[in-house]
Amino acid sequence: xxxxxxxxxxxxxxxxxxxxxxxxxxxxxxxxxxxxxxxxxxxxxxxxxxxxxxxxxxxxxxxxxxxxxxxxxxxxxxxxxxxxxxxxxxxxxxxxxxxxxxxxxxxxxxxxxxxxxxxxxxxxxxxxxxxxxxxxxxxxxxxxxxxxxxxxxxxxxxxxxxxxxxxxxxxxxxxxxxxxxxxxxxxxxxxxxxxxxxxxxxxxxxxxxxxxxxxxxxxxxxxxx
Length: 225
Description:
mainly beta; four-stranded antiparallel β-sheet; globular; Kelch-typ_b-propeller; Gal_Oxidase_central_sf; repeat; Kelch_1
């Protein structure tokens, strides 16, 4: 890549190229972005973001553009912007209701984007926002039952969203109902987890793996929902 970076984001575009943006360059946060071409096996620097971002979130929009939100530039960010691969430009869109880094991002079946939790002002957040790409606007939706940071999210086969972990010393999980815009507790995981992964399997179950309980306790366990 054109720069060393950690806590950055990678998104695969419709043309199979991969856009990497932001992160921590070791001597400061970055707004730079690179594009990887798997056929040529080369990296190309593209236009930088309008904001330096670390620990932000990103997703692909239906038109092939890349949506990026939140993160930290030294201060928490509520801003969001969109990258157009055709024009190689970033355009600011409206901002979330709260500034945050390391939330979860989920693309819903109705095309809206759910951003939930994260770290806001040094505290865990339970706030969730919905972004509507068709209008370029955010709306506050139902708040999670638990404030979460270092959590993970998975869109279930029925279109609802499962959120796990990151809930202080609690292992409860909860589900966001897209039709009612509400959260419901759905039992507890076998282990308290933070910074774990979730993967939806072809049979509809969700694999939750690894993570930490504390800075000194790392997990190799996995469980199925």
